[in-house]
Amino acid sequence: MIIAILNQKGGVGKTTLSINLAASLARSGARVLLIDADPQGSSLDWAAMRQETPLFPIVGLPRPTIHKEIAQIGKDYDHIVIDGPPRVTELARSAIMAADVILIPVQPSPYDVWAADEVVKLIQDAKIYKETLISFFVINRKITNTAIGRDVGEALAAYPIPILDAAITQRIIFAESAAQGKAVYEIDQTSFAANEIESLKDALLKETNP
Ligand SMILES: Nc1ncnc2c1ncn2[C@@H]1O[C@H](COP(=O)(O)OP(=O)(O)OP(=O)(O)O)[C@@H](O)[C@H]1O
Ligand SMILES: [Mg+2]
């Protein structure tokens, strides 16, 4: 399965979710490749911080030809996760064309809900040619014990894209693990963050293989 994690809005958690979802899939025994489609190369930077052996290979492909190259590059893998760039629309479009599933991280803020407009339009355009394409919002950086998570759910309901039934909470361990080039489960496999990532993976697999 090819999973693209996209949102032209910056800083919503594309790289954080890409790395941890890839790690979670690899941990369950799948052969996983991460494609860093962001010219900033954040996933590659993450890998460069790592002392241990890699959890999965990462290739940098910040070119709008991902959809043409992916069959060749990804042929030996069960799952490919594409970490998308902020802003660059041609790259996002190429990643959408390459993908089976799109995950759109959104933070529980009205700005994020409004900014999702752009990626939703790209997905709707692609669906004209690619009827099998599926996509979900993933709420990231939810603050526990606040109503805003529910509010954002209501606001996102205006878009023709469902919300994946697995939100990720705001937790410092995501930044701490990233600084060491690690997945959250490597810092603490019993942590809430690691459990939420497992639930995200399970929800995704359930939606794609019902
Ligand atoms: N659930 C979370 N809890 C705490 N911090 C988070 C969470 N998700 C992301 N972050 C932090 O927010 C910042 C932005 O996250 P990230 O780099 O994953 O976003 P991005 O969408 O890839 O950004 P860009 O658009 O620049 O590529 C990072 O410092 C990351 O550690
Ligand atoms: Mg990023």
UniProtKB/TrEMBL annotation:
InterPro entries: CobQ/CobB/MinD/ParA_Nub-bd_dom, DNA_Partitioning_ATPase, McdA, P-loop_NTPase. Residues 3-182 form the CobQ/CobB/MinD/ParA nucleotide binding domain. Pfam families: CbiA. PANTHER family: COBQ_COBB_MIND_PARA NUCLEOTIDE BINDING DOMAIN-CONTAINING PROTEIN (PTHR13696:SF96), P-LOOP CONTAINING NUCLEOSIDE TRIPHOSPHATE HYDROLASE (PTHR13696). This is Plasmid segregation oscillating ATPase ParF. It comes from Nitrosospira multiformis.
